[in-house]
Amino acid sequence: MAELDWTLIAGLASVVAASGVVAGFLAGLFGIGGGAILVPVFFFAFGVAGIDDAVRMHLAIGTSLAIIVPTSLRSFSAHYKKGAVAMDVFKSFIIWVPIGVLLGTLVIASISSTELRVVFAGIATIVGLRLIFHRESWQLGSDIPTGPIRWIAGVVIGALSMLMGIGGGVLNNTFMTLYGRSIHQAVATSAGTGVLISVPGLFGAIWAGWGQAGLPPFSTGYVNWIGVALIIPITLYMAPLGANVAHRLKKRHLEVGFGVFLLIVAARFVYSVT
User: Fold this and answer.
1) Residues with Cβ < 8 Å from 235, sequence gap 6 or more?
2) What DSSP line would sit under 98-146, residue for residue?
3) DSSP sequence for 42-71
4) Coil, strand or helix at 220
5) Burial 134-143 (b: 16+ CB within 10 A, else e)
6) pTM to 2 decimal places
7) How many angstroms from the chain centroid is the CA of residue 129?
């Protein structure tokens, strides 16, 4: 077994811990606990720690998904006990969302870090613009269609979420509210969607990165366990602080703020590949 580079490990741990403070605060501020914040934070933290650029984006996505597993399970359990989950939507996603995750895994295993950043930037730009210019009157229908449209939506949500390393909340919330479901029901159901994405996504990230060169110590495929171990407690501590600030702001201000955050991240990713 190769000797561990403890200087690299210490540097990685310190950078990830510092980035966890930022990620936790932003998660609490914007009410988003998933990879839309964690992935860019991890990406730039891994860069500061000197991780090979060829695996940096993949590693950020895989590590983010690993963190989302326990948080989504806990969140889904709480929402389910309160009867807030739209079980008709959740049950119809049980097969189709994981199929999307599988497709996303195959893409991650076959494209470069640069291409993955472009994909993240493209999706983040669309979501960011939607948040900034969103109007409550924007609806595609009075209720979510059944059959093929819902199945296709599940596959798309699963695939795009895997490619971004997110729990699917932003995408599923958009889908459900565009078809007349309340934001509270959408958020509760998205917790369940997060389980359907993060669990197979975790194993997909491990498989896709198995044996890859350039991975830092304590990584299994594209999942770095130093990041997982440090981020979870730090974000749990910092999130309430961000939430306290959020309660002083209007919902619309938070939507615009998160939209601007996504556009800045997208621009930074595009700049990094030029």
Assistant:
1) 20, 23, 24, 27, 33, 67
2) HHHHHHHHHHHTTS-HHHHHHHHHHHHHHHHHHHHH--TT--S-SS---
3) HHHHHHHTT--HHHHHHHHHHHHHHHHHHH
4) strand
5) eeeeeeeeee
6) 0.84
7) 18
Cβ neighbour number for residue 180 with a 10 Å cutoff: 12
> Could you tell me how far CA 95 lies from the centroid of its own chain?
20
Compute the distance between CA of residue 206 and CA of residue 220 in angstroms, rounded to an integer. 6
Average pLDDT over residues 154-179: 87
For residue range 60-72, what is the model confidence (pLDDT) as tens digits? 999 999 988 887 7
Q: Is the pLDDT of residue 3 over 50?
A: yes
Helix residue ranges, H only, the chain: 6-30, 35-48, 53-81, 87-93, 96-108, 113-133, 148-164, 169-178, 183-208, 225-246, 251-273
Cβ neighbours of 236 (radius 10 Å): 15
Which pLDDT score, from 0 to 100, does residue 44 have?
Answer: 83
Is the pLDDT at 114 greater than 80, yes or no?
yes
Give the max Cα distance, the chain.
61
